[in-house]
Recover the amino acids of this structure.
């Protein structure tokens, strides 16, 4: 499967926009009539109730909805933190329901790049060391991982900060570290959970601009948010209501 990153550098695969268009035709994740129900005593909570959605390579998708709409459940399924009660979730062509716990753990580590609201950096480690953490757990730390970490740090605007620890960085800089870390394994997609929720409005725009640049270069992004202004940056917004897709707004078409 072609990757949007070449040798860890944030550059689109040779061929430019034509290649991005070609990649976007490939479905890398798909919900097929997905249900996720939870039993609480005698009550069955239908958190997701028949959701179907395709994520294509190069997509920038926002997921929105009120509290209780199913956003968190959908996030957990997309992040391979949970399995559907019924229906199928295909990740890279594999049915998640058929994966063992070890397989799910490997999928989380190798195929999904997580970006959290609270950054989740290790305070005792430097920027470069934090970037290498995903590869450390796969026993892949060495000169190549260090070079890749340096390239990604520079790509997200952290020049001059490579030896700093998280507490020596601003909130925006910490989120840039988190984004670069999420890209270390060349994931199928970035899964961002309220990625700008802890940032001021100016820093929020900087991070959103960075995500837009990454998507333009071919990175697939799924952004879960409650903020319509943040969702407007995506090519489409999936609105959830009562565990179902209420509608899908296609911002990309509207901007053309």
């Amino acid at each position: 499967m072609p990757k949007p990153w070449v040798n860890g550098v944030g550059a689109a695969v040779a061929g430019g926009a034509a290649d991005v268009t070609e990649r976007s035709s490939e479905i890398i994740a798909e919900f097929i009539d997905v249900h996720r129900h939870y039993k609480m005593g005698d009550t069955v909570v239908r958190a997701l109730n028949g959701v179907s959605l395709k994520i294509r390579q190069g997509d920038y998708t926002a997921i929105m909805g009120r509290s209780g709409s199913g956003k968190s459940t959908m996030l957990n399924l997309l992040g391979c933190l949970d399995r559907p009660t019924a229906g199928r979730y295909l990740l890279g062509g594999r049915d998640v329901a058929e994966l063992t716990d070890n397989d799910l753990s490997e999928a989380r580590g190798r195929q999904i790049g997580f970006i959290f609201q609270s950054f989740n950096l290790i305070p005792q480690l430097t920027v470069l060391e934090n970037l290498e953490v995903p590869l450390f757990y796969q026993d892949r730390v060495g000169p190549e991982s260090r070079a890749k970490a340096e390239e990604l740090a520079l790509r997200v605007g952290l020049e001059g900060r490579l030896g700093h620890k998280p507490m020596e960085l601003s909130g925006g800089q910490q989120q840039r570290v988190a984004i670069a870390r999420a890209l270390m394994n060349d994931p199928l997609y970035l899964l961002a959970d309220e990625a700008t929720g802890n940032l001021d409005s100016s820093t929020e725009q900087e991070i959103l601009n960075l995500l837009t640049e990454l998507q333009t270069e071919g990175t697939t992004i799924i952004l879960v948010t409650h903020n319509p202004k943040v969702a407007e940056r995506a090519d489409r917004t999936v609105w959830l209501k009562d565990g179902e897709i209420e509608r899908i707004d296609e911002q990309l078409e509207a901007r053309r």
In short: Confidence is low (pLDDT under 50) at residues 1-23. The beta strands are 27-40, 43-56, 60-64, 86-91, 94-95, 112-116, 189-193, 221-224, 236-241, 244-250. The chain has one domain: 17-255. Residues 37 and 46 are 4 Å apart (CA to CA).
